[in-house]
Each structure stands twice: as structure tokens, then as C-alpha cells.
């Protein structure tokens, strides 16, 4: 045995093993070495003239790759664990905010100043009763009213006054903003997917179910409703205002919300209240099996009475009684129209000009409905108009029978010349300004003065 054993490299076809061993001259006999050391020395000893030993390049590459992979895995684990911790914390915080919001209620803001707000205490009290359900209530509500009757304002007032347990969701005209509307209502932002989540989504199967933001919010509300009922022994309420936006843009969403309202009413979890401004919404909802859990008759918010209208014009707008009567005769108790003509009148615009502006607007509705001379529904329209002037309202079936088919009747109803009332299942003129136009243009419809009646809005 030489005075110094060199480093020995052992290579085989599968692995490269580096054996480094060094013995200083210590006078230790070879016989005292371990059997393995003796074996190595006998089998693989080299002479002093052997070439310098070198570490295999493959071995170096393996070491480097192993180190890099270890570093990458460590980094990934760091970010994944960070994402998980953040997501968990954010989820718990959102849950806290949601439960707090349900406890306190959304309490939507009222954007009308007191000096222009028309008080309707009877309607508000009726709405407040709806928003405070009993423990075992098993139905949802539909509230209807023509555009401009003030139903949104009244619903917001009632929701704000009841407060606790009432979530108010304003359905936007742009359904791309629906998720944000739900997020605003329940007081937390719907989180974007994290970097890790996006990476995991790419490798997941496309067959996995995908949920929109509003569906996630609705799911969160279901959970919050269970927490609220367990604490207060009564269901919370979700108000969906302006659902008419859904019937034109995405009826499927309306169907999902109605189905969920039905199932929730069955389970006594939460009570849904749908607020709409068009007859097409109740007609669609009534045609589905989920209607079995709707509270009937449907509540309808109508126009102001003449007394309420005159009080608004004279006391709140400071208009003389004689002029107030002219304005009311023109547009009736439709608050949005009443406010518009009052604004114009107080701005110094002559009544005749205001009247012509209203008539021009109404004529466009008749044109859209094709009820004018030489238009598709002129003849049938004359018959409907005459009967409505005689009786004020027609049964829904009676109205439909004037037309050749259901589709034609529905098409005319959607043009806002006539109005469907689900509470009574009747059809009437859409507003007093419609009837005023007919009186001013009686010859178009072959109507004689004796056919007209003075109709006061209840």
C-alpha cells in the first residue's frame, strides 16, 4: 500500500459514485482497515503514475439540476402556501363583512330631496310588512309598477327603514356589471383569481363547472341566510330591483333567480322580492312552475291619486291650482311625468308647448306599436281603444282575443301604449298621457266625444 490513497471514482452504467478517501501516514497497518476499505484498495488502487482524477461532467450537471429543481420547488411551495393563507384569510374576512351587512341591512340611499319627495305612507307600510317575514313564511313576492310610478324610491325607503336582514340588489342595465352589483350589495369585493389559481385553472379539465361572480355572491348569501335565521329565528330578505333588465337581456338569469327564490321559500332560508316595471316580467314568471311559491295577488304600485298629485304640484312645487289642474289632466299621477312637466312649467315654458312635447312623445309609442293609420294594428287598435274608453279596463283574455295570436298581442303590450296589471289580470291604457293623446286625435281612431269619460287615477 502506498503512503497516500488517492480519491477513487467508481463509475458504472447506471450511476456515477464519487468515493473520496484519504489516509495520512499514520502507520496504521492495512490489516486494521475495514474489509470494505481493503476491498477497495485491492480492487481499485492506482500507482503514483496514474493520471489525475477528475469529477465526471455528467455528475456536475446532475448536482446543478438537482439544486435548481429544489430551489424551484421551494419557491412554488412558498407562493402556493402564501396564496392559500391569503385566500383563507380573505374568505373569513368576507364572511364577516357579509354577516355584518345582513345584520345591519343594505339601507339603500334615497336620491330625492325631501322638498320634492312625494310621501306615500300607505304604500311604504305595505312594503315594510313584506320585508319583515314570519319565521315559517314559504313564498316570495313580485312587486310591479309602470316606469315612473316611484316604485324604486318607495322600495328603497321601505328597505332602509326596516334595515336589519334586508339586502337590496339593484340589477344594472349592463349585465356585465351584475357581479359588481351583488358585490356592492353584500359589502365585499368578489376576488380575482390569484396567480396560483390561474395556473391551476390552466391545468384543470374544461369540464369543471364555472361560476360567474353573481352566482358566487348568491351562494354566499345562501350561507349568510342560514347564519341569520339561526340567530334571529326568521328568514332574511333579498330585494331584486329593476329585474325588467333581465327579461330583455338574459332571461336565463331571471329564471335562475326565480328558481332559487322558490327553493329558498320551500326551505324557509330567505325570502326574495322581485321588483319590475314591465308586464313581460310577470307574464314570464307566471308561466313557469316556480310560480307556485309566489305570493298572489301580485302587489302593484300605481300612480298618485289626484289629491296626492295636486298636493305635490301646489305645495311642493308652488304652482297655482288652475295650472296644476292642466298639468294633471295632461299626464295624470305618473310622478316622473308630473315632475318633468312641473320643471318645464316653472322654467317658463308655455303650457301649449309642454302639451305638444308630451303628445309628440306619445305619438312615437303609437307608431312603434303600429296603431296609427295604414299601420298593421290600426283596425284592431281602434276596437281595443273604444272598449277601454268605455270600461277603463279589459280582462287580459278579452284583450288577447282582439288579436289573431298571442305573439301579436304580446308585441303590442310591450310598446307601452297599453299596460298589463298582474294584480287584477287586466289591461288598461299605460298612462293618462296616452288617453290625452287619443282625445286630441280622436279622428284617427274614429272616436266620438261621447265615448270619453273623465278617468281619475286611484
TrEMBL record:
Q: Which residues cross the membrane?
A: 60-88
Q: Please, which domain of life does this record's source organism belong to?
A: Eukaryota
GO molecular function (one): hydrolase activity
Keyword presence, Transmembrane helix? yes
Sorted alphabetically, which InterPro entries does this protein's record hold?
ATPase_dom, P-loop_NTPase
Domain ATPase residue range list: 124-340
Going by the UniProt record, its keywords in alphabetical order are: Hydrolase, Membrane, Transmembrane, Transmembrane helix
What is the protein named?
Answer: P-loop containing nucleoside triphosphate hydrolase protein
Q: What is the lineage of its organism?
A: Eukaryota, Fungi, Fungi incertae sedis, Mucoromycota, Glomeromycotina
Amino acid at each position: 500500500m502506498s503512503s497516500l490513497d488517492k480519491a477513487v471514482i467508481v463509475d458504472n452504467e447506471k450511476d456515477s459514485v464519487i468515493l473520496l478517501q484519504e489516509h495520512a501516514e499514520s502507520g496504521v497497518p492495512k490489516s486494521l482497515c475495514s474489509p470494505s476499505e481493503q476491498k477497495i484498495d485491492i480492487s481499485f488502487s492506482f500507482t503514483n503514475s496514474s493520471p489525475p482524477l477528475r469529477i465526471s461532467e455528467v455528475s456536475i450537471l446532475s448536482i446543478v439540476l438537482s439544486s435548481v429543481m429544489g430551489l424551484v420547488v421551494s419557491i412554488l411551495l412558498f407562493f402556493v402556501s402564501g396564496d392559500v393563507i391569503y385566500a383563507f384569510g380573505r374568505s373569513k374576512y368576507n364572511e364577516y363583512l357579509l354577516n355584518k351587512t345582513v345584520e345591519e341591512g343594505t339601507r339603500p340611499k334615497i336620491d330625492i330631496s325631501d322638498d320634492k319627495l312625494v310621501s306615500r305612507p300607505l304604500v311604504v307600510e305595505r312594503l315594510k310588512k313584506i320585508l319583515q317575514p314570519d319565521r315559517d313564511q314559504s313564498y316570495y313576492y313580485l312587486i310591479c309598477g309602470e316606469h315612473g310610478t316611484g316604485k324604486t324610491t318607495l322600495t328603497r325607503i321601505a328597505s332602509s327603514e326596516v334595515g336589519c336582514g334586508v339586502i337590496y340588489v339593484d340589477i344594472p342595465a349592463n349585465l356585465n356589471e351584475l357581479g359588481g352589483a351583488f358585490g356592492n350589495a353584500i359589502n365585499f369585493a368578489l376576488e380575482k383569481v390569484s396567480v396560483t389559481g390561474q395556473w391551476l385553472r390552466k391545468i384543470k379539465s374544461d369540464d369543471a363547472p364555472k361560476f360567474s361572480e353573481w352566482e358566487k355572491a348568491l351562494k354566499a348569501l345562501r350561507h349568510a341566510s342560514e347564519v341569520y335565521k339561526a340567530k334571529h329565528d326568521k328568514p332574511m330578505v333579498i330585494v331584486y330591483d329593476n329585474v325588467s333588465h333581465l327579461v330583455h337581456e338574459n332571461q336565463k338569469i331571471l329564471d335562475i333567480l326565480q328558481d332559487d327564490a322558490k327553493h329558498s321559500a320551500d326551505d324557509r332560508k330567505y325570502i326574495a322580492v322581485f321588483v319590475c316595471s314591465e308586464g313581460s316580467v310577470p307574464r314570464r314568471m307566471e308561466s313557469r312552475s316556480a310560480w307556485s311559491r309566489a305570493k298572489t295577488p301580485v302587489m302593484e304600485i300605481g300612480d298618485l291619486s289626484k289629491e296626492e298629485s295636486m298636493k305635490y304640484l301646489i305645495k311642493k312645487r308652488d304652482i297655482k291650482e288652475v295650472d296644476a289642474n292642466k298639468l294633471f289632466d295632461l299626464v295624470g299621477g305618473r310622478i316622473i311625468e308630473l315632475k318633468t312637466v312641473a320643471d318645464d312649467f316653472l322654467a317658463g315654458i308655455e303650457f301649449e308647448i309642454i302639451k305638444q312635447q308630451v303628445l309628440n312623445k306619445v305619438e312615437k309609442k303609437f307608431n312603434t306599436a303600429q296603431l296609427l293609420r295604414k299601420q298593421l294594428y290600426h283596425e284592431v287598435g281602434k276596437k281595443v281603444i273604444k272598449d277601454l274608453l268605455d270600461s277603463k279596463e279589459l280582462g287580459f283574455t278579452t284583450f288577447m282575443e282582439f288579436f289573431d295570436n298571442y305573439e301579436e298581442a304580446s308585441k303590442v303590450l310591450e310598446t307601452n301604449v297599453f299596460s298589463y296589471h298582474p294584480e287584477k289580470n287586466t289591461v288598461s291604457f299605460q298612462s293618462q298621457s296616452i288617453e290625452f293623446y287619443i282625445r286630441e286625435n280622436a279622428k284617427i281612431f274614429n272616436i266620438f266625444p261621447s265615448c270619453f269619460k273623465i278617468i281619475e287615477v286611484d
